[in-house]
């Protein structure tokens, strides 16, 4: 995958020649000329050398950026595949974290790399309908329970 030009390198209140724009963005001059020739990147008319407004250059480069991957609840972003991936064998492990969220760990369905993502406890119940979740359940904060604290996780005597 080609490196995407960084629009943050562009000052919107100045204008750029093709050469300056190429250098600021770290792309070839011919790339900037291609953007102009395609009609996508407007230039200041009747001007030699060709000048591009920083604001228009910035907007153009921003527009070129690939859209962010939207993950489904049962997907994680696989760093090895560079894509959203589902869980291998539809299995995921829940790792309790502090606060209102938990970590979910799953293996990539394609390359089996370990993937993580943070989910809220509200999402955990929805997620458990989509994948087999293993791991710890949420430990309730004392203030959230109306029941007195009992050792009910101990095996009941028969
Ligand atoms: Zn993968």
Automatic annotation (TrEMBL):
Single GO MF annotation: DNA binding
Source organism superkingdom: Bacteria
Span of domain Helix-turn-helix: 16-64
Entry's transmembrane regions: none
Matching Pfam families: HTH_17
Family matches, as InterPro entries: HTH_17, SinI_DNA-bd
Protein name: Helix-turn-helix domain-containing protein
Taxonomic classification: Bacteria, Pseudomonadati, Pseudomonadota, Alphaproteobacteria, Hyphomonadales
């Amino acid at each position: 995958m080609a490196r995407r030009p960084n629009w943050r390198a562009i000052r919107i209140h100045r204008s750029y020649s093709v050469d300056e724009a190429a250098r600021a963005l770290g792309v070839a001059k011919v790339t900037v000329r291609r953007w102009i020739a395609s009609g996508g990147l407007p230039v200041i008319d009747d001007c030699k050398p060709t000048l591009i407004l920083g604001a228009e250059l910035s907007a153009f480069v921003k527009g070129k950026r690939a859209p962010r991957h939207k993950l489904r609840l049962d997907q994680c972003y696989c760093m090895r595949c560079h894509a959203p991936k589902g869980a291998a064998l539809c299995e995921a492990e829940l790792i309790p974290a502090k606060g209102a969220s938990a970590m979910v760990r799953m293996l990539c369905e394609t390359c089996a790399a370990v993937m993580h993502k943070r989910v809220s406890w509200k999402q955990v119940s929805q997620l458990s309908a989509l994948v087999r979740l293993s791991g710890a359940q949420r430990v309730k904060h004392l203030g959230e329970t109306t029941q007195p604290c009992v050792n009910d996780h101990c095996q009941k005597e028969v």
